[in-house]
Amino acid sequence: MMGLYAMTKASVIMMTKVIARELGGSSVRCNCICPGLTETRFSRVLLETPELHEHYVNKTPLGRHALPDEIVGLALYLASDASGYVTGAVIPCDGGFSI
Which of 2, 37, 60, 73 could cysteine-pair with 65, CB 3.0–4.6 Å? Predict the structure, then answer.
C-alpha cells in the first residue's frame, strides 16, 4: 500500500528539478532533502512498534533512525551561501537506506 506515497515523493523530486531549471535564471535555487526515518511525532508509530523499527533499521547501513538535528544540518547548508551553486539536487539523508 505504498504506491500513492511513492508517487507523491517522486512528484516532489520532479517538481524540484523543474523549478530549479525554470527559475535558476532568476537566482532561485530549489533542492530536495529526502530524509529517512527520523524521530518525529509523525513517525512515532514506526519508532515505537518494534517490528516496524527493526525492519527499517536492518535495511539501513548506519543501523539506526535519524534525529531531527541530523536533517537540520543539511537544511541549513542548503539555505546558506555555502550552497550558492547547488540547485536541482535531490539529497538523501537516510543513513544509506536508499543505496
Answer: 37
The domain 3-93 is placed in CATH, from the list 1.10.10.10, 3.40.50.720, 3.40.50.300, 3.40.50.1820, at 3.40.50.720
Query: pTM for this one?
Result: 0.87
**Is residue 54 helix, strand or coil?**
helix
Known active-site residue 5: yes
- In the chain, domain spans: 3-93
Q: Which residue is catalytic, options 5, 56, 77, 85?
A: 5
50-88 pLDDT, tens digit per residue, is: 999 999 999 999 999 999 999 999 999 999 999 999 999
| Cα–Cα distance measured from residue 70 to residue 92, given in angstroms and rounded to the nearest whole number | 12
Residues in CB range of 95: below 8 A, 6 or more apart: 36, 60, 61, 62, 63, 64, 65, 66
Contact 35, 78 (CB under 8 A): no
